[in-house]
Structure formats: structure tokens, C-alpha cells
Amino acid sequence: MIEAQGLRKTFTTRSRKGTQTVEAVRGVDLEVKKGEIFGVLGPNGAGKTTTIRMLSTLIAPDAGTATVAGHDLLKEPAGVRRNLGYVSQAGGVEDTTSARAQIMMAARIHAVPDPGRATAEVLERFDLTELADRPGRTLSGGQKRRVAIAIGLVHNPPLLFLDEPTTGLDPQNRANLWERIRQLREAGTSVLLSTHYLDEADALCDRLMIVDHGLVVAEGTPSDLKREVSGDVITLRVDEPERAAETVEPLARETRVDDDLLRVYVDDGEHTLPVLLRALEERGLGLSSIALDRSTLDDVFLAKTGRTLRDAGADA
Ligand SMILES: Nc1ncnc2c1ncn2[C@@H]1O[C@H](COP(=O)(O)OP(=O)(O)OP(=O)(O)O)[C@@H](O)[C@H]1O
After folding, report:
1. Which residues, in sequence order, are bridge partners of residue 19?
2. What is the total count of domains within the chain?
3. Rg over CA atoms, the chain
4. Claim to verify: residue 177 and residue 75 sit in the same structural domain
5. Which of 83, 152, 213, 289 measures 20 to 30 Å from 100, CA to CA?
6. How far is residue 257's CA from residue 231's CA, in Å, rounded to a whole number?
7. Using CA positions, which residue lies closest to atom 28 of ligand 1?
8. Closest among 258, 267, 251, 265 to 237, alpha carbons compared
9. To 10 degrees, what angle do helices 297-305 and 222-229 make?
């Protein structure tokens, strides 16, 4: 559905302080297969939106090539646009017009043969029929997101781009939207979505890539990525984390110290834990808390970049 190689984009901004350049995307390759949900996971400023905007023809890449829904991104932009739906981060639902009018407008722009019928169908599909004639401003956050997706889907494209679709939604609305995105996949639509939520990437994506500072740092299925990093993580709060790390090193695949926290990556947490605790006790190392978890995508991010995704978000 998408094959892209070496996408790059640098922004130059001029202000009174002088010229600033930001290398937003620094050579991204990506492949999205037909019928899959593919995620672009990364912290704020990683280059997710820029990548999606390039692939949807909204901005021109400085370098790189791509085929999107069977059309060359640079030579056949109209063919690309015809075959995709794009839902931006802000959502693009107007305050004063109704959902029906906004969806109908999108249907006309795409020259859908029977715009009235296509609008009614997509309203029904997204449980919006009852709300269809209310002005946009009266809708809740979750309803607005559904309208935005309906606008992006009214011409029935085989490929849908969703830029951070659940940002700002409460847990119930997020779960509802995840279910709808899964239904799209069942109906045969390929989905490329960006997110900075680990749980979203883990729960929703068939495959994903992790981006940081405009580069792909890892790619694969969520479980492959987690397996690659390790089976389990033991997190200990200890008085002397460096000494503790040295002590448990022979038992671990990898150890990482983060302030007073020591993360120990092991294949089999349950069986390693008692041995590890004995080793710490023998050296008289004090311990104030302990947790055993399956590794998460945050551990993958940490292993690849040396930071956690949360810290990276705070930096940006
Ligand atoms: N039009 C622009 N002009 C200048 N800089 C830009 C422009 N668009 C993006 N950038 C910069 O490029 C970098 C990547 O931005 P981008 O929006 O792609 O990140 P993102 O991963 O989508 O982040 P977020 O999760 O915050 O949306 C950022 O440093 C951003 O400030």
C-alpha cells in the first residue's frame, strides 16, 4: 500500500533571531502492507506529522521516493490523493456547520457519484446519524473525532492516514475509536496512524516503526519488538544503583540505571527474581521497592535511544 525510501524534510524558518533549520525527517524508509494497521510511534517533534504530510502530498519531500496506493508520490500526486483519506491531528471539524454538511462537502470534492447516499452511509457506520444535523461545536470530543474520520472516509479510500487520532480523548472514547479503527481494517482499509501513546501502538498496530529525531530507530510487530529487547523487566529502587547493577549483571541480559531506579532485563523474571534478591542481600544493598513487568514498547524505545518515551516527550 505504501513503499517509501529515504524520505527527508528540513524546515527553515526566519525570524528576528536569525535563520533556524530543523531536520524534521532525516531519511525514513517505510512499508505498509494492504489491510494492515501500521503505526508511527514517537515523542513530540519526532517527525511523525511531517512524514504523514509528505506521504499525503501536503508537503513535498526534499529527498526520497514513495509509491502510495499504487501511485508515484511525486509524479502522480492526484492519483495518491484520490486513493487516500487524511485525518489531521486537529481533526478539521467546523463549528458552525453540521456533520452532514461537512461530510457532504468532502464527498463532492472527491466527486463521489451519489454524495447524499455516501454521506448517509458513513454517518450510519460511525453512529452519527442522530447527531448529523447539529452544528459541529455542539459535539463532544469523541463525536468530533468520529466526524473527522467520516469526512476522511466518505469517498471510500483503500488507505487512511490518522494523525494522532485519540489525543485528548478520555479512556472510553479511545477504546471506542480503537474498535472502529479495527473495524476499518476488517473492511479491508489499510491504516497508517501516528501516535505517541505506547499502549495505543501496542493494542492497535499490526506493525509499527519507532521514530526519534526524524530517524527510524526500530521496526516490527509489537511483540517482535518487545521480544527483541527482552522477556521481562525487573525494576528496583535501590540505595546504590550502580553497585546493585554490577551485582546483578551476571543474571541479566542488560541493566540500566535511571536515578535511583535500576532496570534489569531478563528472559524469565519469575525465576530470576529470587536469585537476584539473594545476590543483593548478600552484598548488603538496601531495597525500597520492586516490580516485575513484561517489557513494553517504552523499554524498546529506551533500549534504542537511551531515553524513555516519556522523557523524550518532556524534552521536546
Ligand atoms: N512548518 C514547519 N516549519 C518549521 N518547523 C517545522 C514545521 N513543521 C514541523 N516542524 C518541526 O519539525 C519537527 C518535527 O515535527 P512533526 O510535527 O513532524 O513532529 P511530530 O512527531 O508529529 O510531533 P507531535 O507529536 O508533537 O505532533 C519539529 O521540531 C517541528 O518543530
Report:
1. 14
2. 2
3. 23
4. yes
5. 83
6. 18
7. 45
8. 258
9. 60
**For atom 5 of ligand 1, which residue has the closest CA?**
11
Q: Which CATH number belongs to the domain containing residue 176 in this structure?
A: 3.40.50.300
Span from the CA of 88 to the centroid of ligand 1 (angstroms): 13
CA 90 – ligand 1 centroid, Å: 14
Q: Are residues 167 and 250 in the same domain?
A: no
Range of the domain at 262: 231-294
Cβ 208 vs Cβ 38: under 8 Å: yes
C-alpha cell at 141: 470530543
User: In this prediction, does ipTM exceed 0.90?
Assistant: yes
Ligand 1 centroid to residue 254 C-alpha, Å: 33
Q: Give residue-wise pLDDT tens across range 138-197.
A: 998 889 989 999 999 999 999 999 999 988 888 888 888 899 899 999 999 999 999 988
Ligand 1 centroid to 202 CA: how many Å? Answer: 23
List residues near ligand 1 (CB under 6 A).
11, 13, 22, 24, 42, 44-50, 89, 196
The pTM of this model reads 0.81
Give the containing element (helix H, strand E) for 273: helix 269-282
Element (H or E) spanning 288, and its range?
strand 287-294
